[in-house]
Amino acid sequence: MTTPTAHEAPTLADFAGTIVLVGAGKMGSAMLDGWLALGLSPASVVVIEPQPTPEVTALTSRGLKVNPPPTDVRDAAAIVIAVKPQVAPTVVPTLAPLLTPDTVALSIMAGRTLAFLEGALAPNTALVRAMPNTPAAIGRGITVAAPNTKVSQRQRALVHALLAATGLVEWVTDEGLMDAVTAVSGSGPAYVFLLVEALTLAGTSAGLPPELAAKLARATVSGSGELLDRSPLDPATLRQNVTSPGGTTAAALDVLMAADGLAQLMKEAVLAATRRSRELAG
Q1: Rounded to an integer, what distance in angstroms lies between the CA atom of residue 189 and that of residue 243?
Q2: How, if at all, do strands 141-147 and 167-171 pair?
Q3: How many Å separate Cα 40 from the centre of its chain?
Q4: Per residue, what are the HEC states of 31-70?
Q5: What is the largest distance, in Å, between two alpha-carbon atoms of the chain?
Q6: 244 phi, psi to nearest 5 deg
Q7: What is the pLDDT along the chain (282 residues), one digit of tens a residue?
Q8: The pTM is what?
Q9: How far is the first Cα of the chain from the last one, in angstroms, to the nearest whole number?
């Protein structure tokens, strides 16, 4: 398996081995759904989850294994750790017996560093730390991944395919960038949702009925995002295309683009999230 290029669709239909998914909450389940959509056989998946959903349990009829004894887990090509970072010190060390020399461990836990994973598992483990975001639930996420030096090209290709099942994937060699990644794309969906809330409130303040204001704000932000995704133009050009000199949009942008406006607030917000990510990592 080779890492797909930007023009190639990832596939897992030809995968032969075992993927262990540790944690099948919202993000873990989104990844599982994506893998199956890419052709991965449920029989190739082991799920370790104390409270599996009915949807996960139903897949056992197609060969998926839920909470088998550790001795029944063999030839794990990848262990995907999707538990909350707070329980990592308890959960991650229990996974060590599932590792083989060929296993790559992929963590999507926020704030948990490669050094933490090495200490909790084994120093020679092939590890990838990744940060997805919530649009992964609809296959429109973006994930940034940072490998350690033990990851082979084959393992990287497998991890890329597993992550690409929920959207775009970018790789970085400097793990130190992951705190800023968390602040921009990991936390970023919340900023967009806040924009919709704020635009709704602004609309009601201008006299719109609350229900209409909410519908206008939601459709405007989601539609603009889709336009941005489909257009070859950069965001600045798209903004300028909406703005007539001396018009209503220009009057609003005079406020939003002031020295203490949106750009400065966003910079402060991202820096605050970056600092907090570093604090959580210890």
Answers
A1: 25
A2: parallel
A3: 20
A4: HHHHHHHCCCCHHHEEEECCCCCHHHHHHHHHCCEECCCH
A5: 71
A6: -90, 135
A7: 444 444 455 789 999 899 999 999 999 999 999 999 999 999 999 999 999 999 999 999 999 999 999 989 988 999 999 999 999 999 999 999 999 999 999 999 988 999 999 999 988 999 999 999 999 999 999 999 999 999 999 999 999 999 999 999 999 999 999 999 999 999 999 999 999 999 999 999 999 999 999 999 999 999 999 999 999 999 999 999 999 999 999 999 999 999 999 999 999 999 999 999 888 876
A8: 0.90
A9: 36
Strand-pair category, 141-147 with 126-131: antiparallel
Return the H-helix or E-strand segment holding 167.
Answer: strand 167-171
Give the contacts of 81 (CB within 8 A, at least 6 positions apart). 22, 23, 88, 91, 92, 95, 105, 106, 107, 108, 109, 117
Distance CA(254)–CA(231), nearest Å, equals 25
SS3 label, residue 177: helix
What's the full length of the chain, in residues? 282
Token pair belonging to 168: 């775009």
